[in-house]
């Protein structure tokens, strides 16, 4: 399930002039171009004409895409960046925690970036050893730093692990449920990876890291998400 909050760029369309702006003269000269001898004391009413229209610019600026997160992103660069290599970047931070992403972001987003798209996948490394309360607190702090970034932000849900690690999976489910609601409240996007990656063959024998096949599917899912967010 995908919940994406995004703003589409304006496509070429006809837009009526708002009446809080002064309408431009459609034909002839404006009154400022005439001297006093040309002015007449009264002007006969003219027939009503249709409201003037303007055409919006067809120019569409390209947006930068930054995917940042933990070691699960390693090996996803090719599929994610293939569509537009100069404007797409994957930043993989092995063993990264949520607070590490908050520290890294200022060096990734440039002031000149036009409405960049930030896709964040982090938190899984912490579900084993930290409480959900602590992880949620770090997500809140990260969200505060993103509020004024001028970026479109999407959080990718934590992946469950394969096998009998029930405690970690319960924490993962709890964090994901909270993360979805928190993202909706703060106008961030949320991408639900679901439990598909616990299927046979998608995890390495350790039950935590993705296999090559799982990595390829994961990269394809993120690339598709980016394409939809930019459309």
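^ structure tokens above, recovered residues below v
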């Amino acid at each position: 399930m995908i919940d994406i909050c995004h703003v589409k760029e304006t496509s070429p369309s006809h837009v009526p002039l708002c009446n809080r702006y002064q309408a431009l003269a459609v034909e002839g000269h404006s009154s400022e171009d005439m001297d006093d001898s040309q002015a007449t004391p009264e002007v006969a009413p003219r027939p009503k004409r249709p409201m003037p229209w303007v055409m919006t610019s067809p120019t569409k600026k390209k947006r930068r895409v930054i995917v940042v997160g933990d070691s699960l992103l390693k090996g996803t660069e090719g599929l994610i960046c293939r569509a537009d290599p100069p404007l797409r970047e994957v930043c993989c931070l092995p063993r990264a925690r949520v607070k590490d992403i908050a520290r890294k972001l200022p060096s990734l987003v440039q002031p000149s970036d036009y409405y960049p798209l930030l896709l964040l996948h982090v938190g899984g490394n912490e579900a084993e050893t930290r409480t959900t309360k602590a992880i949620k607190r770090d997500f809140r702090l990260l969200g505060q730093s993103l509020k004024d970034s001028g970026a479109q932000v999407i959080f990718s849900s934590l992946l469950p692990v394969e096998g009998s690690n029930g405690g970690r999976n319960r924490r993962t489910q709890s964090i994901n449920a909270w993360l979805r609601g928190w993202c909706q409240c703060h106008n961030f996007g949320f991408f639900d990876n679901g439990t598909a990656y616990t299927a046979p063959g998608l995890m390495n024998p350790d039950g935590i890291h993705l296999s090559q096949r799982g990595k390829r599917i994961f990269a394809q899912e993120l690339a598709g998400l980016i394409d939809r967010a930019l459309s």
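Strands lie at 2-3, 14-16, 53-55, 65-69, 88-92, 117-121, 152-156, 189-191.
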